[in-house]
Amino acid sequence: MLQRVTKGCAALALGLASMSASADVFTYTATLSGAIEEPPNASPGTGTVRVDFDTDNHLLTINTTFSGLLGPTTAAHIHCCTAVPETGTAGVATELPTFTGFPIGVTSGTYSHTFDTTLAATWNPSFVTSFGGGTIAGAEAAFLAGLDAGTAYLNLHTEFAPGGEIRGFLQPVPEPATFALLALGAPVVLLAARRRRGKQ
């Protein structure tokens, strides 16, 4: 019985892993606050962000919601890459002077946009030079590495805090297949433990 369950789980795990590998969309999230700014500030503003990076199709989708800012917005960017994860500051990685279509002059709002990461306009030229080795492909790779390492952050700049009123370091969200593999392994471990106890 245990052998059949183990083989079935292994087959399902392989299927899930192959489905996951065929669609390379990496998801990152963060909670934004003034306490995370460098230096920290007392802004009551809050926000959330989700970033989906489809490396197969070279698409970067940014969805954010924010409210309670002390000053009207002046710009929003993703900065990358800090020397230490979840701390410090870094230059702007994404387009300048702000995200295309980002709501400016407001203290609350939402934003959703998909960028083509093969276009030079998506990137800050300094980031392409400093981190990407002068190529867009290099910038994409460096940006993905920064996201994975927790050294990239979304920053909302306002009149109250021109250097950034609220920000949050983006963290990877485990892929659904990872959760599925963990869930599949649990019954196998439980069955093995049960069987071992029965033999004692």
TrEMBL record:
Does NADP appear among the keywords?
Answer: no
Which UniProt keyword terms apply here?
A: Membrane, Signal, Transmembrane, Transmembrane helix
Q: Where are the transmembrane segments?
A: 176-193
Q: Which residues form the signal peptide?
A: 1-23
InterPro entries assigned to the protein according to its UniProt record, in alphabetical order: CHRD, Ice-binding_C
UniProt domain CHRD: residue ranges: 24-175
Presence of the UniProt keyword Amino-acid biosynthesis in the record: no
NCBIfam families for this protein: PEP_CTERM (TIGR02595)
This protein is called what?
CHRD domain-containing protein
Q: Which organism is it from?
A: Pseudoduganella umbonata
